[in-house]
């Protein structure tokens, strides 16, 4: 029977910050007793990207923005098709 440990957001972010400040994953795993899989996932999830205008986004936020952008692009294509269907075409064209 495995017992899955649950860690709060602050703990995860703190470990990711320590990693980015020079601690190795191996030392963090040993010191805090977390799994390699969990730590790697947190590093991917909580690492940040800074945009040109100085806004800082987490990888999770970037993924959410990509998902939203894909959704909006799909809606845009549907609207373009609807416009083409419902726009009357002149026989003089």
Structure description:
There is one protein chain. Strands 1-2 form a two-stranded antiparallel ribbon. By secondary structure, it is mainly alpha-helical. It is built from four helices and two strands. It comes from Waltera acetigignens. GO terms for molecular function: DNA binding; transposase activity. It holds the Pfam family HTH_Tnp_1. Residues 55-82 form a coiled coil.
The 3D shape can be described as: elongated
Distance between the termini: 73 Å
Which stretches are poorly predicted, pLDDT < 50 over at least 5 residues?
A: none
Largest sheet, in brief, is: 2 strands, antiparallel
Q: How many strand elements? A: 2
Element string (H = helix, E = strand): HHHEEH
Q: What fraction of residues sit in β-strands? A: 5-15%
Helix content: 55-70%
User: Structural class from helices and strands?
Assistant: mainly alpha
Pfam families: HTH_Tnp_1
GO molecular function, one term: DNA binding
Protein name: IS3 family transposase
Keywords: Coiled coil
